[in-house]
Structure formats: C-alpha cells, structure tokens
Design brief:
The complex is a heterodimer of chains A (about 400) and B (about 90). By secondary structure, chain A is of the alpha/beta class. Chain A has two domains: about 170 residues, FAD/NAD(P)-binding domain (3-Layer(bba) Sandwich), CATH 3.50.50; about 160 residues, D-Amino Acid Oxidase, Chain A, domain 2. Chain A is built from ten helices and 19 strands. In chain A, helix 2 packs across helix 10. Classes of the chains: A alpha/beta (about 400), B mainly alpha (about 90). At the A-B interface, helix 9 and strand 17 of A face helix 2, strand 3 and helix 4 of B. Chain B: This is BFD-like [2Fe-2S] binding domain-containing protein.
C-alpha cells in the first residue's frame, strides 16, 4: 500500500473538510472511514449553520467565519450542497424569555454580528403560520441551511479533483508508533498505510482511534432525534427555534418553561426547517443513551406536541419518519482542534457535538493551518487537547 | 433482472428516481441500500422504500456482482406508516 503525507480518519463533516483543506495546501492525503462517506453523525442531524445558537466569543466567531466560508465554497464547488442563507428566528414565549433574548442579541450585536429583535407583528409577517401568541424573537439574517451529507460528498468530490485518495469501508486495526512515540503508519484491513501525520476526525468514535495511539479523548455520545414530514406545501420560510433550545443545548440557562411533563422529561426544544425537497424537519430531543440511536416513541410524541405549540397547522401534516444519531459531546461545549504533545504527528479535530455541520469549513481550514505550522485564523488555545492533559494513558 | 430494466425506468416512485440515477450513485461509490438512498433519495419518500428497496437491491447486486445479503437494508424507523403530527402527539398509532 501507499504512503501519504497525511491520513485523515473519519469521512463526516469534519474529516472531509479537513481532507479538502489539506489537499488545497498541496499535501498528498488519504481519507479513511470504516463505512461510507457521511455514514455517522453527519447524516443523522439537522441541516443548519447558525451563529444565533452560539455562546458569545470564540464560539460565535468560529460560527460566523464558517458560514462565510460555506458561502465561498458554495460559489466555488461544482457539487451542489444546497447552501441557502435563509436566516434564523429564535422565538420567545414569555416576557422573561424576550428579556433574556434581548440581552443576548445586544451582546452579539456589540461584537459586530447582525442580530436584532423583532416584535410579534413582524414575526407574524415573516412566518404567517407561526402561533399568534408569541412575544417576538431574535432575527439573524446571515444564518444558513445546507444538506449535511451533501456537504460531506461535496468536500470529498472536490478534494478528489485535488488528488485525495478515499478508503471507505476500511477498518483501522492498529496505529504504528515509532521509538519517540511518533506516528509512522496505520494498519488497516486493506493493508498498511505509511504516514507521519494522522488527523483523528472520528467524532463520537474518536476515543476508539485515540486509544490506538495511547491517549484518552473525553468525547461522549449524546443522542439527537428529529421527525420528518411528508412533502408538503411551504409553511415555514426560515430556520426557527424556541428560546428554550439554548437550555436544551447548554443545560445551564436559568429559566423554566411552561411545558407538559413529557416535553420536560425528554428535554424537547422546538426547532423547524423546510428542506430543499419540500419536507419539514421537526426537532428536537437530546439525551445521553450511550451509542443507542434507536428512535424513542415517547420522545417522538413530545417533539410532535411541542411542534404543534409553535406551528398549529402541523396537526394535519403527516410524519413519515423519525431519525436519531449520536453527537460527539465534550463537557465544556468546545471542540478539540489540536495537536497531541505526547504523540508527535497525531492531531484531533473532533467533539463538535451539534455544531459539526456548522463548524465544518472553519475546522478544516484551521486544522490544515495547524498541520502546516502556520498561524491559525483565530487564537485556538481554548480548543487544545492539553486542556485534558491528565488523559494521557 | 436489472439488465432488462431501462435506464429511464422509475424505481422509487415517491421520489421519482430512475434506474439510471441509481446506477450513477453506485458508480459514485454507493455500495449498499443506504449509500444509494443518501446519494439519490431512493427510499426517502412517503412509502420509505417499501416499493423500491428490493429493486434497488437487485440493481446493486448486478452492478457490483454481490449477493443480496451484502447490500444491507435501510434502517427501520417509526412510524411504520404515515401518521399526522396531531395523532402522534396524542399517542395515536405509531
């Protein structure tokens, strides 16, 4: 088998972007996955890149840079990944939510982001099918949608034009390390690949790859679930989330919603979007269930109930499928985009939880800068693996 | 079987996907039912592959020279038939 400058492990939204950006820099790159392209989390998620669900600071900065990159790539790529800068509404049910939302939007606007409050009247004009009793919401016009798995196919196909070699349905058996613990190659069921650099982009499975290099990566699977409607007329024009989504995402927003015990139990936060293929995606639920990605009937009921609170007309629209996947959760809600001091030549770009699609382009760009030894676009010291240093086995 | 299916024959009626489009997805790297589904939407419509899955399987087998066991299946997910969000929320048939 061949030798490559860099081997990227994991062909999801992160791995395919990292592979593309490395190819763009002129490296000879191989991309390995134990299944197909976009086989894991990147085909079991929703379809947006938002800044209005990010914490102020680095999180938002990366989100905004990533959306800007998506826009450039959509214009440049011949593979259409259905990029649509449709904007996002974060809707509030109560005055206290509206106050918290205003404070958040002001903070983001002070940092220079295009985010503003809209009142109930404007909300009703923008989304005529939305429940009429809502107070208002945050409007973020730059937020965007895309097909998550087509993003992975697009990066892969465009990178192939730059020389990328793809090994799908290829299982890694061993990572070969040298005397100084440096990366030397990978043994796979399709033969040995020699390389001095490995980028672990295996998301929720990154800890398994890490173990092969003797490090423990603190990423846990966190389940996410959504419902899909039949093809239907357009009832929603923007991405819409309820303000309580923040609570569901970060678990640390200090307010209680007036919801049923079922919605409360499953921590369901309403979000909705209309796809390119005329289906509605309705979410969502997050929970810790290990790697069990089966659909949960009670969570489906709760998602439907919560959806109808915001879009009463969903009542008569058919649900044709549910889907669930696991997201790579990191306890501080920041991804790991870093080298690993204990294993020279081993890098990690993983742990984006529900932001993998959003942060795919910028993560790929930054990781390629790290590998090339260039100055990165942002100060990414907060994303370093060394924040979990004690995890060296 | 798939040798006698013309390229313009519709296989997935819900999403209107033809034999030719499915063969193209296989040339682009699809190796199983899910791989075809993700590339061209065969099986993503109202019937969720009830009608076309076996046909897609036959095309995969003949294009890749594999047996039906190697094509996998699409993941079974509730609801087993379309049900309105209203019925769903009330705990109706899933």
């Amino acid at each position: 088998m061949k030798a490559y400058d860099v081997v990227v492990i994991g062909a999801g939204a992160i791995g395919t972007s990292v592979a593309y950006h490395l190819c763009e820099k002129g490296y000879e790159v191989a991309l390995i996955d134990h299944g197909d392209i976009a086989n894991g989390s990147s085909s079991h998620c929703d379809a947006v890149a938002l800044i209005c669900d990010k914490q102020p600071g680095l999180d938002t900065q990366m989100g905004a840079a990533s959306i800007a990159l998506y826009k450039e790539l959509a214009a440049k790529f011949s593979y259409d990944f259905e990029f649509d800068q449709k904007g996002c509404l974060y809707v509030c049910e109560t005055e206290s939510e509206y106050e918290a939302a205003s404070a958040y939007a002001n903070r983001q606007a002070q940092d220079g982001y295009d985010m503003s409050m809209v009142d109930a009247k404007t909300l009703a004009e923008m989304e005529p099918y939305l429940a009429k009793d809502l107070i208002g919401g945050i409007w973020t016009p730059g937020d965007a949608a895309m097909s998550p798995y087509k993003v992975c196919f697009a990066f892969t196909e465009e990178a192939k034009k730059l020389g990328l070699k793809v090994y799908t349905y290829c299982s890694i058996q061993k990572i070969l390390l040298g005397e100084k613990n440096q990366v030397e190659g990978i043994e796979t069921d399709q033969g040995t690949i020699y390389t001095k650099k490995i980028i672990n982009c295996a998301g929720v499975w990154a800890p398994d790859v890490g173990k092969m290099a003797g490090i423990e990566i603190p990423i846990q699977p966190r389940k996410g679930m959504n419902l899909i409607s039949e093809k239907t007329k357009r009832i929603v024009w923007h991405k819409i989330l309820e303000f309580g989504y923040m609570m569901s995402k970060f678990d640390d927003i200090n307010f209680k919603r007036n919801v049923s015990p079922l919605v409360e139990e499953y921590n369901v936060a309403f979000n909705i979007e209309y796809t390119n293929d005329s289906n509605i995606l309705l979410g969502g639920y997050r929970g810790f269930r290990g790697f069990d990605a089966r659909s949960e009937i009670e969570a489906m009921k709760a998602i439907a109930e919560r959806g109808m609170r915001f879009f009463p007309c969903l009542k008569d629209i058919n649900c044709i499928r549910s889907y669930a996947g696991v997201r790579p959760f990191v306890v501080d809600h920041l991804p790991i985009v870093s080298d690993v001091e204990a294993v020279p030549g081993f890098y990690i770009a993983a742990g984006h939880e529900g932001d993998g699609i959003c942060l795919s382009p910028i993560t790929g760009k930054i990781m390629a800068q790290v590998v090339a030894g260039e100055k990165t676009e942002f100060d990414i010291s907060k994303l370093k693996f060394s924040r979990f240093e004690k995890n060296v086995l | 079987m798939s040798e006698i299916m013309p390229d313009d024959m519709i296989v997935c009626r819900c999403e209107e996907i033809t034999v030719g489009e499915i063969k193209q997805s296989i040339r682009e790297g699809a190796k199983d039912i899910t791989g075809v589904k993700r590339r061209v939407r065969a099986g993503m419509g109202l019937c969720q592959g009830r009608t076309c899955e076996k046909l897609v399987q036959q095309i995969l087998c003949s294009e890749l020279n594999i047996c039906p066991e190697q094509t996998g299946r699409s993941t079974a997910r509730p609801p087993v038939r379309p049900v309105t969000f209203g019925e769903l929320a009330e705990g109706g048939v899933v």
